[in-house]
Amino acid sequence: MSDSSAGGGHIHPQLAVYVRGNQISLPANIGIDPSKPLTEMAGLHTHDSSGVIHVENAANPTLGQFFQVWGVPLSSTQLGPNHAKTGDVVRMWVDGKASQAFGALPLEDGQQIVVSFGPANAAPPPSVGASS
Question: Would 127 be classed as within a structural domain?
Fold first, then answer.
């Protein structure tokens, strides 16, 4: 367990995002403006497209805060431009277990988070339950 909830930790949850079965790469430099000094980067950011979220000095960080920094809507009915409607749903797994926390999910070191949009009857993405 990390001390990030106190605002002083550095943790690394892993995020995978799928839309209709296709994995969407997280962009590099979410929360980092290359025209500004690194000391001005957001407390929740990425350095590359690996899906690793870097959480530095963020008090009580949540998945919703990361999605806000990214500029992508996330809720139980929306993932980016995709809105759940008849037959389509937004689903989430944390460390291989289904979760309904969505944006309220507290981020923790080593967490494996998968968010998926698509048909309600689709199988979970292949990374659900996978250990790394």
Answer: no
CA distance 25 to 82: 16
97 forms beta bridges with 94
- Report the pLDDT value the prediction gives residue 126, as an integer from 0 to 100: 80
In 3D space, the residue among 125, 131, 132 whose CA is nearest the CA of residue 24 turns out to be 125
The runs of H, that is alpha helices, within 24-62 are none
Q: By CB neighbour count within 10 A (0-12 exposed, 13-18 middle, 19+ buried), where does 89 fall? A: middle
DSSP conformational letter for 29: T
| 130, part of any domain | no
d(CA 122, CA 38): 41
> What is the model's pTM?
0.88
In this predicted model, what pLDDT tens digit does every residue of 78-98 receive, in sequence order?
999 999 988 899 999 999 999
Residue among 100, 7, 126, 123 at smallest CA distance from 60: 7
Amino acid identity, residue 113?
I
Number of domains observed in the structure of the chain: 1
Give residue 81's domain range: 4-119
